[in-house]
Amino acid sequence: MKLLPLTPDGRTPVRALTIAGTDSGGGAGIQADSRTMALCGVHACVAVAAVTVQNSVGVSAFHEIPPEIVAGQIRTVVTDIGIGAAKTGMLASTAIITAVAETCRDLGIGRDGDIPLVVDPVAASMHGDPLLHEEALDAVRHTLFPLATVVTPNLDEVRLITGIQVVDDATARKAAEALHALGPRWAIVKGGHLRSSQYSTDLLYDGETFREFTAPRIATGNDHGGGDTLAAALTCALANGYTVPDALTFAKEWTYHCLAASYDLGAGHGPVSPLWRLHSAH
Ligand code: PXL
């Protein structure tokens, strides 16, 4: 596949920021984002919003970082290191979402600023363990989404946010319209969890045109961190100046390779892996 360019000046890589939760099992969240960014050739800055107690079987608890500390991490990175794009993942609460949104707006991160913002509205782990308080869904809809350059919900998150159960092309289009109406510049409805086809098709909508992005489906139970990986790769491509459709083409192909390289870990679900990039370099 065509990879992202490395170090525009031959020394310092493009930077991106992930604002998300940690996964002690190393499969998803900030660990997946940082790994993806590194292997895409991008320097990962991190603003930790929550710490999960997690292994391959599930999430047994999480601790929320005080909102002003989350906001402080974002501000201190952006004003010194500078970033080409940012991504949000697990934000846990209304208070954290509010602090993140205010800080991003202030720093020119988001659909109306200079720095693109990918919003992955993480609500639950693949085991169904909650990662977002239910009361925070309104803040996702009305505070976070209006700020986003692009949103990347999976089908469970689409249902929680819009009330629409996606079962086919027609309901996917309805859901994309409902997501876009909340204010992001672009909405993606990820079809990876629609297991009725041998392809995984994501639908991208900008308020006018529907575009489909398709990859062969890889049948594996080891898909922990798959959504994070797609959104992080998308963020890396945007940080390199790609348009959203071109960034999604890149992210979809990247994630396909990571799914193909996924591995067993612990007694539960293993992670998707960007380490294929190292194998192919040998
Ligand atoms: O894959 C979504 C996700 C994001 N962030 C954290 C997670 C998970 C899934 O378990 O734990 C911290």
Task: Please sum up the structure shown.
With 282 residues, the protein is of the alpha/beta class. The protein has helices at residues 29-39, 67-80, 94-106, 137-144, 155-162, 169-181, 226-239, 244-260, 276-279; strands at 15-23, 43-54, 59-64, 85-88, 117-119, 150-151, 186-189, 199-205, 210-216.
- Report the count of strand segments: 9
Bound molecules: 3-hydroxy-5-(hydroxymethyl)-2-methylisonicotinaldehyde
Global outline: globular
Strand order of the largest sheet: 3-2-1-4-5-6-7-8-9
Distance between the termini: 16 Å
CA-atom Rg in angstroms: 17 Å
Mean pLDDT: 95
Instruction: Encode the helix/strand succession as letters.
Output: EHEEHEHEHEHHEEEHHH
Q: Helical residue percent?
A: 25-40%
Number of helices, counting only DSSP H or I runs of 4 residues or more: 9
Major sheet: 9 strands, mixed
The secondary structure category is alpha/beta
* Proportion of strand residues: 15-25%
Give start-end ranges of low-pLDDT stretches. Answer: none
EC number: 2.7.1.49, 2.7.4.7
Protein name: Bifunctional hydroxymethylpyrimidine kinase/phosphomethylpyrimidine kinase
Keywords: Kinase, Thiamine biosynthesis, Transferase
GO molecular function: hydroxymethylpyrimidine kinase activity; phosphomethylpyrimidine kinase activity
